[in-house]
Amino acid sequence: MPEFKIYQSTGEQELFVEQSLQQVTAAASETVSAVVTVDDQQTFQEMDGFGASFTDSAAFLIHQVLDDEQRQEVMIKLFDPQEGIGLSVLRNPMGASDYARSVYSYNDLPAGETDLELKQFSVAHDEADIIPLLQQALKLNPQVKLMASPWSAPGWMKTSGSMIGGELKPEFYQAHADYFVRYIQAYAQHGLPIYAVTPQNEPLFEPQHYPSMLMLADAQSRFIRDYLKPALVNHDIDAKILCYDHNWDRPDYPLTVLEQAEAVVDGVAWHWYGGETSAQSAVLQAFAGTEVHFTEGSGGEWIPPFEQAFSNVMRTGIEILRNHSKSLVLWNMALDENNGPTVPGFGRSTCRGIVQINQQTRELVYTLDYYALAHFSQIIRPKALRLAAEASKETIRCVAFRNTDQSLALVLFNDSEENEHVSVQLPGAAPITITMAAKSAVSVLSNPSV
């Protein structure tokens, strides 16, 4: 039995290919150019895992556009830990996001009406495509954790009277907290436990062409502390509450929420569309014990060449984990040949899904995000503990974990423009020297006995 499993990506034509140790080991005459050392005596966060989102658009494409055989294939390749890449975290919109075929909530009413008791609440929309796929994902991988985030409260609760823009009216804070309760209860009835919620997706961004809701830090603190947490407690719901759910460039927001509501906030959720990953560690340093989660990052045409786009996911993914995140969740699980569907009036989409499903031909393509996620999720399993790992050269990016079966998982990315001969020193194993092409990724998994 081999001592290591090794997976390598060297470019668009070679993505996450399993290699033998002999195929990647440098010749004895080659000079080691970098050393990576893993210290298993120093541990950090425990992983929940890796994943993406079953938006309305993604669920429609997988559940309705693909035929039964294709659907089974893609779900296995996404979620099965042995035959696929074992994705284990799903963060779903509560109602419509920008990637939905229509604008909807779970409690839509005619203009001027209210429903404080939520008598018309229903998740029937999700029962068509989203819930069946979540149930299948959970069956394929029982370790899957479900997160939920609203892009907007129902329009009748807001100053705009619409799911587009506006803020949550204070008189409807309790109704919105009850809305979360009803959602969690409805999903539980379908065998889908909700692991964590965030009060609002991107609360500082108020676009006028898709569902959104401005929620400033003071308002979020009050909503969580005085309404959402008490509502969950009153209904014996133990879902975690993660604040913020926005970019690294405004750490002042989660710091404010934690200052005002730390006792009832479990963690902070982050996105990658602005700022630096170090913000995750800075907030954690200020509030020790607060969980760190990365809940959304999309690739797209703004980084068009393959190498740059793949490098961005690998480089940033490693840094997200090195900055204490328990999760790494990209955006749409699937998009079509036009990077959609999107809500009416959205305009041209430039985002990239984990898979692409052509609505005209039903062609199914696994994108670079699938293979980049594979470098992490295939070897770093739920409940793995991050270990200290350092490289002697800054351009060799690395992150290491110990799985519950005691196997060691190491993800490497060569961020230089040259080939590197990297000596990997794992605890309890003889050093191995791996040849890494420029901008290539290598994942190393030791046997549990090593």
UniProtKB/TrEMBL annotation:
Record flagged with keyword Signal = yes
Give every Glycosyl hydrolase family 30 TIM-barrel domain span: 48-380
The family database entries (Pfam families) matched by this protein are listed as: Glyco_hydro_30, Glyco_hydro_30C
Where does the Glycosyl hydrolase family 30 beta sandwich domain start and stop, copy by copy?
A: 384-443
Show the InterPro entries listed in the entry.
GH (IPR017853), GH30_C (IPR033452), Glyco_hydro_30 (IPR001139), Glyco_hydro_30_TIM-barrel (IPR033453), Glyco_hydro_b (IPR013780)
- Keyword rRNA-binding, does the record have it? no
GO BP terms: namely: glucosylceramide catabolic process
SUPFAM superfamilies registered for this protein in UniProt: (Trans)glycosidases
Q: Name the domain of life.
A: Bacteria
Keyword annotations from UniProtKB, A to Z: Glycosidase, Hydrolase, Signal
Q: Its GO CC terms? A: membrane
GO MF term set: glucosylceramidase activity
Question: Family, per the entry?
Answer: Belongs to the glycosyl hydrolase 30 family.
Q: What is this protein called?
A: Glycosyl hydrolase
- Organism field: Paenibacillus donghaensis
